[in-house]
Amino acid sequence: MQADKCRTSSRSVKKDLVIESPLQRKDAAQGEMEAESPGPVLAKPKLIEPLDYENVIVQKKTQILNDCLREMLLFPYDDFQTATLRRQGRYMCSTVPADAEEEAQSLFVTECIKTYNSDWHLVNYKFEDYSGEFRQLPNKVAKLDKLPVHVYEVDEEVDKDEDAASLGSQKGGITKHGWLYKGNMNSAISVTMRSFKRRFFHLLQLGDGSYNLNFYKDEKISKEPKGSIFLDSCMGVVQNNKVRRFAFELKMQDKSSYLLAADSEAEMEEWITILNKILQLNFEAAMQEKRNGDSHEDDEQSKFEGSGSGLDSYLPELAKSTREAEIKLKSESRVKLFYLDPDAQKLDFTSAEPEVKPFEEKFGKRILVKCNDLSFNLQCCVAENEEGPTTNVEPFFVTLSLFDIKYNRKISADFHVDLNHFSVRQMLATTSPALMNGGRPSSPVLQDILQEAAMQYPKQGIFSVTCPHPDIFLVARIEKVLQGSITHGAEPYMKSSDSSKVAQKVLKNAKQACQRLGQYRMPFAWAARTLFKDTSGNLDKNARFSALYRQDSNKLSNDDMLKFLADFRKPEKMAKLPVILGNLDITIDNVSSDFPNYVNSSYIPMKQFETCSKTPITFEVEEFVPCIPKHTQPYTIYNNHLYVYPKYLKYDSQKSFAKARNIAICIEFKDSDEEDSQPLKTWWASVHKKRLCCGFTPSPKPRIL
């Protein structure tokens, strides 16, 4: 080993000590110098400024004007056309307040307000049809279909994983597959019970419209079939029970036959029916083809016989139509000529700019919600003389809104409904209707159109949903006049025994509470129902509101409501919630385009609004559209709403009082932080007092300010 290593090292040394010639040494030294010297410095590319089109036109004005092809470079002088388009709205009057523009202190605000009422100014290009890719000109005419791509059977690649049955159904043909018993087809051997073999048959339509009945050893129809029966050669299918039960025979044109058998009589009849239907279709197609051929020959003969008689009388019209046909043919032939270019067939014509239309107010799926009745098991006559209908013993107030548990958010404003009987409303102290749905319009024009009495107690609302899906719920929250805790106030409604005495007791307490605290509310119950069947926006009209669940004093927020709705389809969890005996009747329906007598969320009436109509007024409820780019749209109407949600009140650190039972929150806008500052007068004035119990989280109450 040592000797081998020595020999190897000596050889390597000898190789390193080879004496070189002077010429070789010179070349080696020059190579080393080139390797050590840095490479050539690359010059930076010159930055070429884009061509200034207007500057070139000015500099070469004389040359361009003398050019015979100057029209291809210059814009036509009469290309621009301006027009004024009247702004069309769906409202009876402008959505902008009458004095908004005068009271605006900023020029920017003034110009923004003008955009809601000003007309549209359109700029049209006369020769726009001849701009763009030269292979697409003119680009506003109807585009021709692309040249068909010829596909041959040799070039087709069969997808092994694709189900041939689904492929046949996509072509619109008849398909069927299943297990059958196939008799021996050898005519030399008689068909017996033992000669039947179980095979998987698959009926398939080919590209030319004909049908084949292929059979396999197993259900893997992607493999090559063991055999095929061509139904084009079949003359009929009849039942044949001579050899085997549930057997049928396919008679072919060459007087041969195929004997097949099913497992049951129903399956046998189904196969016979389908096969006979295919034979009938083949026969009708052959007869139609024959009739078309005969009629074509008759038409050619009649044209030849009558061509000489009518040519002279219709010569002017014929010449005119011929010229028009030639012009059209030249235009189409030019486009077809460019279509022969493979690159032209790859052009995407859908990217052309569509026709510009003015911005419109867009809505999602619109749903009409009609509140019919709210009744509890605890009822009696509330009149002093006991002469009147039997109603609820105290006033209740319903608030409707939409919740999306898929995205865990509330997607609409609140719609407040008063379903109380007239006699029950008399229990309350006189309050301003501004407490309902954000207030009343202060515009004198709207006050003449909208009667206060008709808008005071709305029962119909229109909700809008931009992204409908089955996980959207319509939630009804029920409130009552403030009187004690929620548990104490709901206890009489959860019992079904001796309701008359309990009703009189509750009525007495309710009258006292309504006189003292009629404008204060407290949570009482809630109910929910699904809104859509699927993502297409089909309403689930068969669904009904759930039972009236007692409101939990510790779970009043929107987040708590979303948690309840997440378990809404779990009966085992919903059964644990305390139920109040009562019924809420609310129906939903689609909104037609000509729906009458409704106002938007700002109380602006529509054009089809009838002032003297007895039809109840319907209110649009504003949707909280998700902040998604595909749903973003420009504002087309003046909408100045601010929704305030009191989430909680923290008073643990204060030392003014030891215990707190009832707390009212009054929300106001003020122009400064000084103590003597006055609240601002808003367009839609709304002040709502909300009860907060000690340790409770208040339910969100949006109000329009």
TrEMBL record:
<dbReference type="InterPro" id="IPR026791">
    <property type="entry name" value="DOCK"/>
</dbReference>
<feature type="region of interest" description="Disordered">
    <location>
        <begin position="289"/>
        <end position="314"/>
    </location>
</feature>
<dbReference type="InterPro" id="IPR001849">
    <property type="entry name" value="PH_domain"/>
</dbReference>
<feature type="domain" description="C2 DOCK-type">
    <location>
        <begin position="639"/>
        <end position="705"/>
    </location>
</feature>
<dbReference type="InterPro" id="IPR021816">
    <property type="entry name" value="DOCK_C/D_N"/>
</dbReference>
<protein>
    <submittedName>
        <fullName>Dedicator of cytokinesis 9</fullName>
    </submittedName>
</protein>
<feature type="region of interest" description="Disordered">
    <location>
        <begin position="22"/>
        <end position="41"/>
    </location>
</feature>
<dbReference type="InterPro" id="IPR011993">
    <property type="entry name" value="PH-like_dom_sf"/>
</dbReference>
<dbReference type="GO" id="GO:0007264">
    <property type="term" value="P:small GTPase-mediated signal transduction"/>
</dbReference>
<dbReference type="GO" id="GO:0005085">
    <property type="term" value="F:guanyl-nucleotide exchange factor activity"/>
</dbReference>
<dbReference type="Pfam" id="PF11878">
    <property type="entry name" value="DOCK_C-D_N"/>
</dbReference>
<dbReference type="Pfam" id="PF00169">
    <property type="entry name" value="PH"/>
</dbReference>
<feature type="domain" description="PH">
    <location>
        <begin position="173"/>
        <end position="280"/>
    </location>
</feature>
<dbReference type="InterPro" id="IPR035892">
    <property type="entry name" value="C2_domain_sf"/>
</dbReference>
<comment type="similarity">
    <text>Belongs to the DOCK family.</text>
</comment>
<dbReference type="InterPro" id="IPR027007">
    <property type="entry name" value="C2_DOCK-type_domain"/>
</dbReference>
